[in-house]
Amino acid sequence: MSVTVVNPATEETVAELDEAGVEETDAAVARAKEAFPSWRDVAPGPRAAMLRRLATLVEENGEELARLETRNVGKPISDSRGEVGMVAEVFHFYSGAVDKHYGETIPVAGGVDMTFREPLGVVGLIVPWNFPLNISSWKLGPALACGNTVVLKPAELTPLTALRLAELALEAGIPEGVVNVLVGPGRVVGQRLVEHPEVAKIGFTGSTEVGRGVMQAAAATIKRVTLELGGKSANVVFADADLEKAAAAAPYAVFGNAGQDCCARSRVLVERTVLDRFLELLVDAAKGVKLGDPEDESTEMGPLISAEHRERVASFVDGNVAFRGEIPEGRGFWFPCTVVGPVTNEERVAREEVFGPVVAVIPFEDEADAIRIANDTPYGLSGSVWTENGSRALRVARALETGVISVNSNSSVRVSTPFGGFKQSGFGRELGMHGLAGYSEVKNVFVATE
Ligand code: NAD
Asked: Closest by alpha carbon to 260, among 213, 302, 307?
């Protein structure tokens, strides 16, 4: 069996790879298990040095990785370059974290009590197709820093950069068997990793539906799981906001990565008194988003990942379209930037994760109404609040049921700050020092001194 990797902008085959199954998964877990004791025992200094070297190799091979990611995912080359830059930064950060992951001493009677942060063992990392290299690094960095060995399963549509990263890990001096990459279907390789008794933890990023199954299957072996799942984030614009700035930024917060972003602010909530004005500004801004050849330096949005996915995205657009952009001619899984609305929060486009360049504009009456609508979703990943009133900004940021929120900005992700969801967007945190908690276990040791 083989996996055909396609360029979504041209529909051409980029690579044919052997497909792994259960047998290959078991073999990879066995390799990782064998490599674990000596990797766990590598002293902090040399382990940090290897991660630092990996970061440098990602930088040195940055252009190659970015081109590979663009050809495989269809994302604009400028985005891919930015993402590769973040990957290097992630490994730099976690190289620095190796010797700062402290335990504690706790006052007790009759002796000394101390805690250690122990690695878990073999961890399974399951990654989606929208940010293949980035999300791999968010898991690999803390997993390796804590002393775990890894079996990484990229999405079958986009495995190329993860495979290249594994080569760079070896070149960085990380021993054979510590980082294993498997290309194969989720329901076979992913499922086996989740069920495998020798896998201690699953770090999963993907849809809420598959995440639910991962959590269920992990229960059989009481496997640790962290789940980074879907979103339906709100971009809340109050009448007192800098409307020009909010409207100019809004399209990029939902059409970025062609809308295939778990943090997409795909619901724009606008205070009714400024709805018409904001909609006008938003449509003007959406007209400016440049679609085209992802390898072109000036392109801002590429195609969707597949024909099948395009069909699903199209099913959300069935009327009340305020704006529909143009798409390039010729081959590729293109879908236009689309603004829908005004709609209510009850409509399908406002309730489900579209995962395409479609934004729903929803009016609200006042602050309480904005909070109610923003929270009326099973998801809770990301979001924004736009207002010039500082007290309101903090009140609303605290009231929103979401793991990540920005005020007068649409940025969600930084290397040094925690990222993850509330509610059905998952649990556990990636990035920053918080990310280490998902890849280590606290051990308590008491030493009697009397
Ligand atoms: P998906 O859930 O279909 O697949 C994710 C990964 O799980 C893939 O590697 C897939 O092969 C694997 N998988 C599929 N079935 C499996 C099974 N039964 N057992 C184990 N693994 C299995 O998601 P996708 O379509 O690749 O990605 C899009 C989704 O990911 C969206 O819902 C998006 O919101 C979410 N996402 C979340 C975050 C976040 O950090 N919260 C980031 C990016 C994407």
From this structure: 302
228 is an active site residue: yes
Considering only CA atoms, which residue is closest to atom 26 of ligand 1?
128
Which residue in this structure is represented by tokens 């395009």? 310
Q: Cα–Cα distance between 94 and 432 in angstroms, integer?
A: 8
Query: Residue 415: CB partners within 8 Å, gap ≥ 6?
Result: 86, 89, 90, 93, 431, 432
- Which ligand 1 atom is at minimum distance from the Cα of 156? 11
Give the residue among 273, 396, 272, 259 at the shortest CA–CA distance from 339: 259
pLDDT value at residue 197: 98
Q: What ligand 1 atom has the least distance to the C-alpha of 153?
A: 9
Q: List Cβ neighbours of 372 (8 Å cut-off, separation of 6 or more).
A: none
Active site includes 118? Answer: no
CA distance 171 to 400: 45
Given the residues 24, 89, 156, 228, select the one marked as catalytic: 228
Q: Which residue, judged by its Cα, is nearest atom 43 of ligand 1? A: 262
User: Mean pLDDT for each consecutive 10-residue tract of the chain (450 residues)?
Assistant: 96 98 98 98 98 98 98 98 98 98 97 98 98 98 98 98 98 98 98 98 98 98 98 98 98 98 98 98 98 97 98 95 97 98 97 98 98 98 98 98 98 97 98 98 98
Determine contact, residues 107/449, Cβ cutoff 8 Å.
Answer: no
Sequence-distant (6+) residues with CB within 8 A of 219 are none
Residues with CB under 6 A from ligand 1: 126-131, 135, 153, 155-156, 186-187, 190-191, 194, 205-207, 210, 213-214, 228-231, 262, 353, 355, 381, 421, 425-426
From the list 24, 83, 156, 262, the catalytic residue is: 262
Question: Looking at ligand 1, which atom is closest to the CA of residue 209?
Answer: 2
Q: pTM score > 0.85 for this model?
A: yes
To which H or E segment does residue 54 belong?
helix 44-60
- d(CA 230, CA 423) in angstroms, rounded, equals 10
Strand order in the sheet with 224-228: 179-181, 149-153, 122-126, 199-205, 224-228, 426-427
Give residue 319's pLDDT.
83
Looking at ligand 1, which residue's alpha carbon is closest to its atom 18? 187
Reported residue count of the chain is: 450
